[in-house]
Amino acid sequence: MYEVAPKVLRLMRGQERCGRTLGLEAAVTLLSLIVTIVVVGVILWLINTYIPMQGTVKSILNAVVVIVLIIWLLNAFGLLGPLNRPIR
Fold it and tell me: Hey, where are the domains in the chain?
């Protein structure tokens, strides 16, 4: 039992990968992405269900939230590049 603990600690720190597994750090990152998407979806559903507003406003709100979420996901996966670079 005592031999397993250091390996688990190295996995938690992301210092060791075992075979084909992603490691605990990558799994936690993926889990946080999924939780964030679910939370945003639930909040958007609550707003659409319980706050009365015109259909066009709902459509615009939904489109803005989806576009921001897609940009955030592209940035999280490193496909977009840094967003904080200065514009020249």
Answer: 4-76
Q: How many residues does the chain have?
A: 88
DSSP codes joined into one string, 6-68: HHHHHHHHT----TT---HHHHHHHHHHHHHHHHHHHHHHHHHHHS---HHHHHHHHHHHHHH
DSSP notation for 55-75? HHHHHHHHHHHHHHHHHHHHH
Q: Which two tokens stand for residue 26?
A: 């990558």
Residue-wise pLDDT tens for the chain (88 aa)?
445 555 555 555 555 455 455 566 666 688 889 999 999 999 999 999 999 999 999 999 999 999 999 988 888 887 877 766 676 6
Structural tokens at position 52: 């009365």
